[in-house]
Design a protein that fits this description.
The protein is of the alpha/beta class. The protein is about 50% helix and about 20% strand. It contains 13 helices and nine strands. The strands form three sheets. The chain has a three-stranded antiparallel β-sheet with strand order 1-2-3. The protein has a three-stranded mixed β-sheet with strand order 4-6-7. A hairpin with a 2-residue loop joins strand 2 and strand 3. The chain is elongated. It comes from Desulfonema limicola. This is Rhomboid family intramembrane serine protease.
């Protein structure tokens, strides 16, 4: 069950989310250059519960090193597929949560989820001397917040069956709820020291993410958050848009909707519009003039239905500003 995308469009550029993805990739490359020292590197910067419960082991690390590991562990990964899976889930779910919280709150939220999930893991593996690494706990927190914010969203999901891809749109509450139950069953039925996967960190991150989201609603908004939203606001919609026009049987015209941003409405823009028509797809270059208002109609003369006298109606596109 592999998520492909969700149906919720973010209104702002996910600057922090994209930066977190970049940092995870960067530090994975740093790992790859450790060579024979990789084991020591992971032990120093991963999260090792025994470093906090075994006094002899703890004596080798300063207070700052002990605290830093709660942050550094979430930027390291156990391999390429571990990294790819984490950044893919972060890419799908993180932009919408950042859009809701704002960039600064989202960064604090992400780090707190990662730190909290590490502590939650330690409760169930108090004396383990095996390092845990990965952004999974923090990303589980993002998924927990998404679960609370957009339970009715649809997740386009790939189900590969005997190498044949099947795609289904699954409600977010079902997809994420099933994911959470799967983590709990795996945690209850196996040991992280055997499986190599910190299931309890995933569970803790999800719960902490949902709880922190509710707490954030009780905190007052600041001018800094609002300013950051305005700076990160998306200036443009996709240049290429697919429109499926329709119209009454007795009407020679076709009707559709073209989506632009307030910035594009004010300044004007050019769009490529792909119109599926039977087995053909017609591509048009459309100019949206400056100072366009919500509900304005753009007319493409002669691009509607073909009439019996071989003339054509028009294609009328209503402007929607989002």
């Amino acid at each position: 069950m592999i998520p492909i995308r969700d149906t919720i469009k973010s209104k702002t550029v996910p600057v922090v989310n994209n930066t977190l993805i970049g940092l995870n990739i960067f530090f994975y490359l740093v790992q790859m250059f450790q060579g024979n020292d990789l084991g020591r590197f992971i032990f120093n910067y991963g999260l090792v519960p025994a470093r906090y419960t075994d006094f002899d082991m703890a004596s080798y690390f300063s207070f700052g090193q002990q605290m830093f590991s709660f942050v550094s562990y979430m930027f390291l990964h156990g391999g390429f597929w571990h990294l790819l899976g984490n950044i893919w889930f972060l890419y799908i779910f993180g932009d919408n949560v950042e859009d809701h919280l704002g960039p600064f709150r989202y960064l604090a939220f992400y780090l707190l989820c990662g730190i909290g999930s590490g502590m939650f893991y330690m409760l169930f593996n108090f004396h383990s001397n095996i390092p845990i690494v990965g952004a999974s706990g923090a990303i589980a927190g993002v998924m927990g917040a998404y679960f609370m914010l957009y339970p009715g969203s649809k997740i386009l999901t790939l189900f590969p069956v005997l190498f044949i891809p099947f795609f289904f749109e699954i409600p977010a509450f079902f997809f994420l709820g099933f994911w959470f139950i799967l983590q709990f069953l795996n945690a209850a039925g196996s040991s992280a020291q055997v499986s190599g996967i910190a299931w309890w960190a995933h569970i803790g991150g999800f719960i902490i993410g949902a709880a922190l989201l509710n707490l954030s609603h009780k905190l007052p908004q600041t001018g800094v958050t609002q300013t950051a939203r305005q700076i990160a606001e998306k200036k443009k919609t996709y240049r290429l848009q697919v429109i499926n026009p329709s119209g009454p049987i007795d009407d020679p015209n076709l009707y559709g909707t073209i989506v632009i941003t307030p910035f594009e409405a004010q300044r004007g823009t050019m769009k490529l519009v792909n119109i599926p028509w039977g087995f053909q797809k017609r591509l048009y270059k459309i100019s949206v003039p400056p100072d366009t208002k919500q509900g304005n109609v753009l007319r493409l003369t002669g691009q509607g239905k073909k009439l019996r006298d071989k003339s054509r109606g028009d294609l009328l596109l209503t402007v929607e500003i989002e």
